[in-house]
Amino acid sequence: xxxxxxxxxxxxxxxxxxxxxxxxxxxxxxxxxxxxxxxxxxxxxxxxxxxxxxxxxxxxxxxxxxxxxxxxxxxxxxxxxxxxxxxxxxxxxxxxxxxxxxxxxxxxxxxxxxxxxxxxxxxxxxxxxxxxxxxxxxxxxxxxxxxxxxxxxxxxxxxxxxxxxxxxxxxxxxxxxxxxxxxxxxxxxxxxxxxxxxxxxxxxxxxxxxxxxxxxxxxxxxxxxxxxxxxxxxxxxxxxxxxxxxxxxxxxxxxxxxxxxxxxxxxxxxxxxxxxxxxxxxxxxxxxxxxxxxxxxxxxxxxxxxxxxxxxxxxxxxxxxxxxxxxxxxxxxxxxxxxxxxxxxxxxxxxxxxxxxxxxxxxxxxxxxxxxxxxxxxxxxxxxxxxxxxxxxxxxx
Length: 397
Hints:
By secondary structure, the chain is an alpha+beta fold.
């Protein structure tokens, strides 16, 4: 047996060679990197994504450098707070409603429950309110330091389809858990009406369905990167669309939102799940896409921009008014949704998604061909020659 030691990209790799009658066996041992350390190669930081290497984003690098440091949400929002002040600052009544427990008869019972949930901490004769407790239960986030008050979700309503004229700009500064339902109701009240045709009858409905708004706001709140200063969740309402964005690039590629899931803020997500506000199993995106199909809306557009994650929900539009990109996006999302539901996309299933008659099968075939050329879907069984019975799966299946 021989042992060799190599140095590569700043760290040591142990190599052992074991002789064998048929040749030799070489065993490499590459140690894991130290916490809080990232290694670069010729000035670039790389990570593995699937079967390939891709550059790390600023957010991913910052997450590595912050390893071992206290989590932003677990750091104190306020310290040396007396019991009476805790009850004044936090909406404890709503907390007990969210967890389906009767409100205690005395303040000690309230403070005890908050301590048990780790939403406050007992320190000698006073309490510390961590940022988690403040951001979830705060009666007004503006009662807390600026770095936390700035995390209040902001709703901006524009007069038309651009940012030229602003009708309303408001921050809703109640805690995420205690103010969530009010936030959703406020956004729904600001949505314009849209005219759709069903069974030859025209009717007015909200621009986008509430289930989509609810799921996207919940996702934006819990998956935001709290460490990015001076920014928070934005909900922008236009005449023809709604854009919801949060700080931080997504941990999962946007094309994999349907089948992939990774929580950025695990404890916050767990608490919001217990409060029945969001789900931790990653089915929220499925519901959004399903709602878009049910209401015959263009497919949502998921985007990763500089240090932000954005989702665009579009108002009703018939198939013949969608451009090629919108049709391909809808085709891919329908295919992925069918796959995670243990079904398969066919020409017929996509035609029904767009609520088109059988006479439009050729138009659907063109969309499928465009999605295939774009690398978004592939034929499940290439040996199937009949276009009528051919099924498709997403590119990653």
